[in-house]
């Protein structure tokens, strides 16, 4: 099975978005994999200067750069390809020092973006935080709640929250009913931005990295972009 290459995926830019190249990889376009334009987003994760109306159709004058965010036509996400990309993100090792380097690299990548973003890295076998920071002032306490929900989702299903979001087309009710979550449904979130960290030769998830504050596909994409540098 050929793994889709990540090299054609450009870096997150200071324009508050992922500028996609529509280069084909395994016959698929990157926009087919990453961004369905009708992806819902939690209010706290919308960039400042946008309204609830499709995060981009209306913008305040305070952040004119937000109007440059990509808004490609909707295409059904390719779950198999998302899964292949995640399966390729196997690190050679993962220590506290590696967590610091990974978190610092994410912070460095996100600093040019004025939207405040939370970065969290924690071990899977205990609720032990190895890295936690906000890129700018203005982060709401609610972001930490979303970090916890994304983390818990990754630990239970062993896949990224973006994968689950695409699998259920963002339908949290269907997701909750499928797994019989009942009253505990609110403890989980299928919003992109939570990714499992796996290590070569180690069974299961070793740690979880979460980004919260951008659009959810951007939260997911920036983690993938930075993680590939550690392989």
From TrEMBL:
Give the source's domain of life in one word: Eukaryota
Protein's GO biological process? post-translational protein targeting to endoplasmic reticulum membrane
Q: Which GO terms describe its cellular component?
A: TRC complex
Where does the record place the region Disordered?
A: 39-74
The protein's matches in InterPro entries, at most eight in alphabetical order, are given as:
PduO/GlcC-like (IPR005624), PduO/GlcC-like_sf (IPR038084), YBR137W-like (IPR010371)
Please name one Pfam family that this protein belongs to.
HbpS-like
Q: Where is the composition biased (Basic and acidic residues)?
A: 43-54
| UniProt-recorded name of the protein | DUF967 domain protein
Q: What species is this protein from?
A: Amorphotheca resinae ATCC 22711
């Amino acid at each position: 099975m050929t793994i889709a290459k990540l090299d054609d995926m450009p870096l997150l830019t200071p324009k508050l978005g992922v500028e996609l190249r529509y280069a084909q990889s395994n016959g698929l376009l990157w926009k087919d994999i990453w961004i369905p334009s009708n992806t819902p987003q939690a209010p706290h994760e919308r960039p400042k200067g946008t309204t609830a109306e499709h995060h981009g159709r209306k913008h305040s004058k305070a952040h004119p750069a937000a109007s440059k965010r990509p808004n490609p036509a909707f295409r059904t996400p390719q779950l198999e390809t998302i899964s292949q990309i995640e399966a390729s993100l196997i690190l050679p090792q993962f220590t506290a020092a590696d967590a610091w380097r990974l978190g610092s690299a994410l912070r460095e990548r996100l600093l040019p973006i004025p939207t405040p973003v939370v970065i969290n890295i924690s071990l899977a076998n205990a609720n032990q935080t190895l890295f936690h920071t906000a890129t700018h002032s203005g982060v709401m306490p609610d972001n930490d709640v979303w970090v916890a929900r994304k983390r818990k989702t990754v630990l239970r299903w062993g896949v990224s929250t973006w994968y689950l979001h695409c699998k259920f087309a963002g339908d949290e009710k269907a997701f909750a009913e499928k797994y019989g979550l009942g009253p505990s449904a609110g403890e989980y979130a299928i919003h992109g931005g939570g990714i499992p960290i796996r290590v070569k030769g180690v069974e299961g998830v070793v740690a979880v990295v979460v980004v919260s504050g951008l659009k959810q596909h951007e939260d997911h994409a920036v983690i993938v972009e930075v993680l590939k540098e550690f392989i």
